[in-house]
Amino acid sequence: MVLNIFKIIDISFLALALILLVFFLRKNKKRLKKEGMMYLYKTSWGIKLINKIGKRYSKALHFLSYVSIFLGYILMAGILYLLGSTAFQYLTKPEIIATIRAPPIAPIIPYFPELFGLSDFFPPLYAIYFIIAILIVATVHEFSHGIFARKWGVRIKTTGFVFLRFFPVVFGAFVEQDDKQMAKKSKFKQMSILSAGVFANIISAIIFFFALILFFHVAFAPSGIAFASYPYTAVDLSKITEVNGVEVENPNLNEILILTNDTGLNRIKSGENGYVIKKENLESQKDGEKVILYYDAPAINMDLERVIVKIDGRDIEEISDIKEEISKHSPGEKVTLTVLSNDGKDYDRDIILGKNPEDKNSPWLGIGFSSQENKFVKSEFIHFMNAFRTNNLNFINNTYYKPLMGDLSGFLYYLIWWVVLINILVGLFNMLPFGILDGGRFFYLTILGLTKSEKTASIVYRFSGYLILFVLALLMFRWVFSFF
Q1: 405 in any annotated domain
Q2: Residue 433 falls within a domain, yes or no?
Q3: Are residues 263 and 183 located together in one domain of the fold?
């Protein structure tokens, strides 16, 4: 785990938080209750607020009960699909295990991407991210349970926090309701209370998602255009006349490969048109009538950096800016590009423009762009998903966004990003029809409502629990077996 300034500060924060929590728990040990691996710290904090909201917004909560139950079913279907799909992919495609060496069941704890070899798939999860996210997620989840319980006349006995005995920075919140009163309520009321927590998590995820969008556009500014690839085309093998200056007759893929170099670009001619390609790209193609080649263009020949900030001193913020500046020149003329290096610094590169293969009189740089997503929310959602990989953070569609606060912009962005993601994950996980999770009792009541038989509902409920345990155990066994 490579240390940077944020990790040093974060590890120091984690150590301080652990010391303070241990001191707090020791000082209040009379109010703690041991329950397995956990400590329960019970209080009456928040009960008045729960009662107040439950009474004042009774009509709104009645309507939201239907929404909450419907969402509960959506999340339950979602987590079961994800579990089944993951198991199928993991058990039938060994290449997945070879690529991702992490266990299929990895807990979301501070630094889990580094601990389980998932840094290529997740951004860092600092301890401060984890603590803030869990505090938000657990609080809204449990308070929502309490508010809906109060709306349906179920008494709230206590509230509080639960801490892992051996590492108390792993914690959660709880709202203790009167279980006897809960059991006497109708199936609809019980299900609305059970699904209320995940309903609150999804609402929180949506709120923080829009906060994330706002923060990004405040903390980052458009500062360049990123091209996606170099232009390429399919070329008939039979029409290739020359490879690296050597004439070929009756060409096929194997003959062309023999004439190519292992390093650098190989130059191929087909009639009057020139193309380039690396040998490794050529080897990955299947032998057939055509082969995919890149146009012999200035950008690919110079291995041009993917982010263009300026052209001849003019700031580039849209693709149209590039087209406009290039059109001012003729083929063979020099332009100065300000590009972004791998270390994030701007520098100038001179480049001689080529001829457009479709119009020999037009200047050509030779860069291609991915299709842009014009719908704002959809493009922002795609950006959120792409931000799983930190090197995608600064890009939305084809625009490069410069962080206005340096590395702090990214640090704060991922704080909100993790709050959104953990809310979604907790919402999904809690609707798994298993054991003490909200989804367990929710599933039991659903089967009871369909069959009208407690015996049948109990059998189906227990079977689903054992089946989920079996699938999880099978995944772990398959992972362990892969090391032998």
Answers
A1: no
A2: yes
A3: no
- Chain length of the chain: 484
State how many domains the chain has. Answer: 3
**pLDDT tens by residue, 433-444:** 998 889 999 999
Q: In this structure, are 189 and 266 located in the same domain?
A: no
Are residues 300 and 364 in contact, defined by beta-carbon separation less than 8 angstroms? Answer: no
The model's pLDDT over 181-220, given as tens digits with 9 standing for 90+, comes to: 999 999 999 999 999 999 999 999 999 999 999 999 999 9
The reported pTM is 0.87
By residue range, what is the domain housing residue 187?
A: 5-220+413-481
Picking from 436, 419, 438, the residue whose alpha carbon sits closest to that of residue 428 is 438
CA atoms of 290 and 36, how far apart (whole Å):
66
Which DSSP helix (H) or strand (E) runs through 170? none
**Residue 225 belongs to some domain of the structure:** no
Least-confidence region, from 53-67, 72-86, 157-171, 215-229:
157-171
Distance of alpha carbon 479 from alpha carbon 484, whole angstroms:
10
For 219-278, the DSSP string reads HEEEEEEE--B--EEEEEGGG--EETTEE-SS--HHHHHHTS-SSSPEEEEETTEEEEE-
How many helical (H) and strand (E) elements, i.e. helices and strands, does the chain have? 16, 19
Residues near 158 by beta carbon (within 8 Å), at least 6 away in sequence? 42, 43, 44, 47, 175, 176
* pLDDT of res. 263: 87
Q: Looking at residue 344, which CATH number applies to its domain?
A: 2.30.42.10
